[in-house]
Amino acid sequence: MATTTTLAPGTTGYERSWVLDWLTTVDHKKIGVLYIVNAFAFFFFAGLLALVVRTELAVPGLQFVDQSTFNQAFTMHGTLMIFLFIVPVFSGFANYVVPLMLGAPDMAFPRINALSFWMLPLGGLLIVSGYLVGGAAAGGWTGYAPLTGVQFSPGDGTDLWIMGLAVVGTASILGSVNFLTTIFKMRAPGMTLYRMPIFVWTVMVTQALILLATPVITAALIALFIDRNYGGSFFDPSVGGDPILWQHLFWFFGHPEVYIVILPALGVVSEILPVFSRKPLFGYRAFVWATIAIGLLSFSVWAHHMFTTGVVFLPFFTFMTALIAIPTGVKMFNWLATLWRGSLVFTTAMLFALGVISMFLIGGISGVMLAAAPVDFHLQDTYFVVAHLHYVFFGGAAMGVFASAYYWFPKMTGRRLNETLGKIHFGMLLVGFNAAFFVQHSLGIQGMPRRIADYAADAGWTEMNLISTAGAFLIAFSMVPFVVNVVTTLLNGEKVGDDPWEGNTLEWATTSPPPTYNFDRLPPIRSERPVFDLRHKHEPNLHPEANP
Fold it and tell me: How many CB atoms lie under 10 A from the CB of residue 548?
């Protein structure tokens, strides 16, 4: 009887529970989902804190919370929304779709990818754990010195806030190295830089901004920690420090952070509009260069946040800030040209994409107003700035998050979110958002300062604050149809095929959800729309703009 010494591979592997599978996964798609779920958990908590702030401000007087609790609420709201929701949630979508869009089997460094994610909930828990030790940080999400010094913030909450943000920042740096390596080294044959989807371009520029800007704020946080705990003198003027130095360091990170937040949302819009207009994106290369220009200019405008400090050269930073409107305008006009005479399909994803454009336009116009130093001197630290910030961050970026969710949910689950519930969600959110924040422009022009818990009854601000608070609650209620939609669709939603929207980019060329290594085979890549080319391969004249 013949024998063999050849070892045969096992046909059954070690079976793990689904919990352990998700906790130990290095699959970029599962990590992307973990990013998104984690980000939405912090989003809902930060939203509750926003309701605390708006409820207190609905009428004059301190009715619901004291001054300290109010300060903690708006500080943690801003911190969580920016560092634990809006930036990580786009990292989640990018984790899921960027390798698919590039035709890659995974991220370049899967284990570092998992490490980057798991540092986020750790950092977030450190930040919010201040509530368990006598009070969370209360110096504002900008952490201005000397408000975050020991004299004004003596508890442990601020130290936990510093440590948590340092962990989150380190995670972002690791993630940016991974994304940039993936984009430059993992593209499929034929996927040249000029054939990458616009969303990948925006992720690439965003990750470059993170890599350059985040170490600056991380270093500033370490210096602040030394000031608070080891007698340092970086920012404390009583021992020779300079509080304005914190503003320079913070805003050198903080203004690129605006584009770290908004660029992926603009990338999503640039993917959705062509699909639901049944037209190619107008001016693909102009979009690419406008994205790069915004990234470069974002490092030259930080001091427009510091006009009233008297230590910056006003004409230079006014000019540079206004200059950034040019590439942004290029994107706006190209989106309109993409829509022009298109066969428009108003899905929920399309509505949210149009919402991004309209709300970001309002935020952009108010940003140009603030870029003018004489106007900024009048409006500095008023509710006009709060309105501007929310039109960019929530009206632009957060609506981009929901556009992404409705657009890519079928790819992630194989099921399409209910369109009726989606449109109810969009309508309530749009109305609530504008009720909450548009009136804040007027409040700011009339002089209502930001970061206050109370105001005089005869100031003339009560009616507008009531409207703003009602709008905030409508935003909160708009999340009900969204959550119901997600849950019911996961349980019993409409099953759709691999490409329900007739998409253009490579993620639509594989199954929904994709297999472990994404593709069994790839279509030829001869333009930035390889799936469109595959669908119309017998009609070459339909794609005359294909890049050689």
Answer: 6
